[in-house]
Amino acid sequence: MAAPALVALAHGSRDPRSAATVKALVDEVRRMRPDLRIEPAFLELSKPSFQTAVDKLVRAGFDEIVVVPLLLTEAHHAKVDVPEAVATAMARHEGIQIRATSVLGLETAFLDVLDIRMREALKESRVRELDALVLASAGSSDPLANQSVARLARLWGTRHKLPVKAAFASAAPPATAEAVRAFRGQGRRHIAVASLFLAPGFLPDRAAELAYEAGAVAVSEPLGAHPEVARTILARYAVGAVELVPV
Q: Which of 222, 247, 245 has its CA nearest to residue 10?
């Protein structure tokens, strides 16, 4: 019996770099599990759509699919858009079983990826010292989602023994530039910003631009197609696959 197929479901973006990063991440997952059928898909703005990916898998003979939402927080997309997409797909294909897992979330292991991306940014900017950090994410109208970012920021600050502020590109204060200016108001001059986004796009670009204008000395790239992110996708898949097993 074939293992359930895996759909890595991202939000989607008009920025082609975003879809390219997601597909590179899927390639990384495939390298780790060449035995699995793995497809990328997007909720909107990018192709293939989730329904297109499901149709493709059904034509290939799969009747069990595990969906891993490539989302960093449990906000609206995770709570509403993903379940609706799954329900629509199951209604279109009688007899198919689709299980959506928990989102990628904010694993503490992602701090290692943040460190790598930050070292790359500091090297490129020729920065040798820091006295503050800002952890910039998309932001949400869901306060619990924003609190999860704040918790990760505190862990990151403890790791480096530096003050860290969580900041948001939309929907919640403080904005990334505001966080940088707040640190500068305390007399700190070597402030770096980490991009807690999965892939490049409008929001991380805008956050970076405004952070530099506010006085940041470096801004890192998003998490991207890192093996740690790929391993987390497979960990979520493993749980979803078990949940599909009849009791």
A: 222
